[in-house]
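Re: beginner question about structure tokens

> Can someone show what the tokenized structure looks like for a real chain? I only ever see the sequence side.

Sure, here's an example I had lying around. Input first:
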Amino acid sequence: MDIVTVVGARPQFIKAAVVSAALSTAGIQERIIHTGQHYDPGMSDVFFDELGIPKPALNLNVGSGSHGAQTGAMMTKLEAYLNEKKPDWILVYGDTNSTIASSMVGAKMGIPIAHVEAGLRSFNRSMPEEINRIVTDRLSDLLFCPTQTAVDNLHHEGMTKGVHLTGDVMLDATQYFGARSDKLSPLRSIVDLAPGSYYLATVHRAENTDSPARMEAILEAFSRLQKTVVWPVHPRTKNLLKTLKTPLAAHVKTIEPVSYLAMLSLIRGASSVLTDSGGLQKEAVWLGKPCITMRDETEWVETLERGWNQIVGAHAETIVAAVHNAPSGGPPSFGSVSGGTASEHICRLLQ
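And the corresponding structure tokens:
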């Protein structure tokens, strides 16, 4: 069996790390294509080196651009490569432009598509990621769902063939690399702060970064918090901050993007996590940290159980209040299914 895996963004590198390891153990040939959607070394190269992901067979070097330009450039280059290699399967992850470009090219070329993280829905079609998810699921032959909610979403849309509940490969990664993060990337090597003395923040979603009003509200909320806010700043967000009227408060500590192991160490040391990321919501809850999600909805409804994740939008008062609203009971358990890890389950289904 010959599989081409297409990745292009930080969350996909992390997921591919555990699935590629399972494929290698099973003796399945895999070639990785890096689209270059994330091209900054701090958002790309470091993950391949740190997580032991096989070096890409090809880097498309697409870089940034509008959705249409970026997706079109990926499709043109992918088509040429796939026409030459003719793999048995194309394996895609999540909801990025890399995902939808690969799915559309593969479907038109008659190459079966396998989608990891199928069935997620925010039900907000103003999000580019939501469009990418819906289209990719429709084109996929194997749909690997991380949760029962994702399975139910697909069933409600009339998709039952090829749908499998596999568990969440991000849980595999969090458990495997989380146990190593303290040793390989200790907190003191990232920030000179004691565990529990800071909040961890990330902001990169277009719904926030494309809205000066929302970003101003988020900065206002950060300024009202009593602890240090550690904020690894996405390159796109860094450029936006220079244009805003609200200055960063003195206790907001911005740092460069960090590796995956460093991010796990930052989560483990934080008292709470404030984010608009999808994956970070899950990682925070799995690592026992309350999460405040600065969006209007979430695909990961399981995280909301017992108040461990709170959806607050981009309203300063609501964000600050949520930080002081402690969850009740232990964190929810989700993302695992019986029979082993999600990556091994996906590997068996491909075989």
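Each token stands for a local structural state, so reading them left to right follows the chain. The CA atoms of residues 50 and 94 lie 21 Å apart.
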